[in-house]
Every structure is written in C-alpha cells, then in structure tokens.
Design brief:
Strands 1, 2, 3, 4, 5, 6 and 7 form a 7-stranded mixed β-sheet that branches. The chain is α/β, with parallel strands linked by helices and 344 residues long. Helices cover 41% and strands 10% of the residues. The longest helix is centred in the middle third of the chain and has 27 residues. It is built from 13 helices and 7 strands. The protein has 2 domains: 197 residues, no CATH class; 98 residues, no CATH class. Helix 2 runs antiparallel to helix 4 and helix 4 packs across helix 11. Bound molecules: zinc ion (2 copies). The site of one zinc ion has 8 residues, from loops.
C-alpha cells in the first residue's frame, strides 16, 4: 500500500517533474536533493524492530492509527546519522541555509540536540513535528519568491527557509522548536524554524522506514479514515485512478498511501456529492483541488491514468504548488502542513 519509490527511479521522476512544471522549477530543484536523500535513507530498515504483534487490526478498523498503538521511535534508532545526512541534502538544495544548518549539525554531532528527544518532546507536547509549522506566520511573498524568482537557492536572497518566517521577532518563536526549546534555540543560537524543518525531514525518513516495516508485518487491514493509518497525519495529496475512479490519499509525513471514499471529506468526513466540489484550472484537467465548505480545507488532487504507484506523490505535490497558492488565496487551508505548502 505504500508508494515506496525506488531511489534509483527518483532522479528520473524529478527530471520529468522539472520538464512538466517549468513554472515550479525552482522549488522542485530546491527539494530535489532532499527527496532523493530521503528515499535513499528510507530504503534500509532500522536494525531494532518494532513489536508489530501489538498492533490490533480491530483498533485499526475503528480508526486508531498505529502511532496511537505502539511507539514508533526507539532510542536505538540511528536518528543522529539520518539528521546529519539530511542536513547535507538541505545545504545542497538550499545553499542559503548553509550557515544555520551547519550550526544545527554541530549541535547534533555534539549531542546537544538529540533527534530522539526532539520527537519525544514533540509527542508529549501533543505536537506532531509538522504541527509546529502551524504556529509559524509565514510570509507569502517568500514562498512565491521561491516559486517564481531567479533561483533564490543560488542567489541566497534570504536567511530563513522559504517556508519559514523571521521567527526571532516573535515572543512565541520557541514554540516552533519544541525539541530544542528555549535553552537550545536561544543560548545555542540556532534558528528554531531551521531546526524544526530539518527534524521534519528526519521524521519522514524514520516514519517511512517504520511504515514499510509495519505494512510488511501486519499485512492488509481495514482502514476507513481520512487520516493516515500509520502516523495519524492528514493527507497532502490525493490521486484518482482513471480506471475505476478510486481515490488514494497520500501521507507526506510517512509516505503511506491508502484508499478513501470519494464521497466524504477526508478531514471532517462531511459527505459530498460525487465530484461536485472540485476546483480545476482551465486546460489542466488532470490537476484539481478537492474543497470542503464545511471545514474549509482543500486537498490537491491528481487524475491519472495507469498505475497508482508509478510516481512519487511528494514530487507531484511539490509540482502542484501553484494549486496551493490558488486555494490558499481563496481562503482554504491545506489538510496538513508540509515543508513546501505553507503559503500564508
Ligand atoms: Zn503517515
Ligand atoms: Zn471537510
């Protein structure tokens, strides 16, 4: 049920995405080294296995995701190594962040930032890593800049991530970095938004490893919810198959895909008349956004012929960033926060 893009294929997928979406070239290029590194790192499993016998299929059927049933992170997991690898990929795609990312890498090397503790703190605070982005007031101009400007990744036009705001001025800025918290983010002089960004990328790699392990161990199971059966996050993008018209939702937090009814909103479960509430761009019939007027959320949706697993759904989501801009302009919010879709 996972998309599990082979890392050998991902380069071709990104090349095709660049050709097909020239208007979003800069953001695709900025994320390309990150996505390639994530897929490569996620291919191998953690040496220490989870006890998947504790996962109850009846609970899954009732809508309790795996993350609410067992611990997905173990202290033995090589999160530090993943974080340092991802830091290199961020610097490659977004060289303007090099100085900040180097500081964070040093703190990770020295053990002053521990990714495992970071995820535990996030969880105990009731915050998923991506939730912390919600607290961030993002400058829309910045995101539009990265989509449209002359390669800000090379020109180094800003010191903050394209999706991150100037957090230092906010009295609540430390909330954006629950794991490194006040002491680290102030005394250790790192950008909370950059640390949060890096940790969200580490989170994806670790969760994707676990999602693969869990789906292999548990086998098929019933799941009828609009949020992810593994990590509980809402989908970042949907895909509707040409044949049969099935809708698959994709989780960018862990890479999982699952089938979901086309007649309900994945977020609030309001039933919607089939295909009545979709927004399309003229001449682009394969790209749409599902919109829900009850919860005011949208979900970028692709209509595709052929196999559902023949693409990388995160690359597709990044390639459709223009749809995020349009829908957020119209006042709708994404169902989940991804590193690339925070525009307002
Ligand atoms: Zn997930
Ligand atoms: Zn809704």
């Amino acid at each position: 049920m996972t998309t599990a893009t082979e890392s050998s294929e991902i380069k071709n997928i990104i090349t095709r995405a660049l050709e097909q979406n020239p208007e979003n070239r800069e953001i695709i290029k900025a994320f390309a080294p990150i996505i390639m590194k994530q897929r490569q790192l996620a291919e191998s499993s953690f040496p220490e296995k989870l006890d998947c016998s504790l996962i109850d299929k009846e609970k899954l059927k009732a809508g309790v995701p795996v993350i609410r049933q067992i611990e997905l992170f173990l202290p033995e997991d090589s999160l530090k190594e993943i974080a340092l690898s991802m830091a290199d990929a961020v610097k490659e795609g977004m060289p303007q962040l090099t100085e900040n990312i180097n500081k964070i890498s040093n703190l990770i090397q020295e053990g002053k930032i521990n990714p495992f503790n970071y995820f535990q703190t996030s969880k105990n605070n009731g915050n998923k890593v991506s939730d912390s982005y919600c607290e961030t007031q993002i400058s829309k101009t910045k995101c539009i800049e990265i989509c449209k400007s002359n390669n800000p990744a090379i020109s180094g036009g800003y010191n903050t991530p394209p999706f991150g705001a100037e957090l230092g001025s906010s009295p609540d800025s430390n909330r954006n970095c629950p794991g490194v918290h006040t002491r680290d983010s102030k005394d250790l002089k790192v950008s909370p938004s950059n640390a949060t960004f890096l940790m969200s990328l580490v989170n994806r790699v670790a969760l994707e490893k676990r999602a693969r392990e869990i789906t292999a161990a548990v086998g098929s199971f019933d799941w009828e919810k609009g949020y992810c059966p593994i990590c509980g996050e809402f989908p970042s993008i949907a895909l509707i198959e040409e044949e049969g018209g099935k809708r698959f939702l994709h989780c960018s937090s862990c890479g999982q895909d699952w089938r979901f009814t086309r007649i309900s909103c994945p977020y609030c479960e309001k039933e919607t008349p089939k295909d009545m509430e979709y927004f399309y761009i003229e001449n682009k019939t394969q790209e749409a956004a599902f919109v829900c007027d009850k919860c005011k959320k949208y979900l970028v949706t692709l209509y595709r012929a052929g196999k559902v697993f023949a693409r990388d759904m995160d690359v597709s989501a990044i390639s459709l960033i223009h749809m995020d801009m349009i829908m957020q302009d119209k006042g709708y919010k994404p169902m989940t926060i991804c590193p690339w879709n925070i525009l307002t």
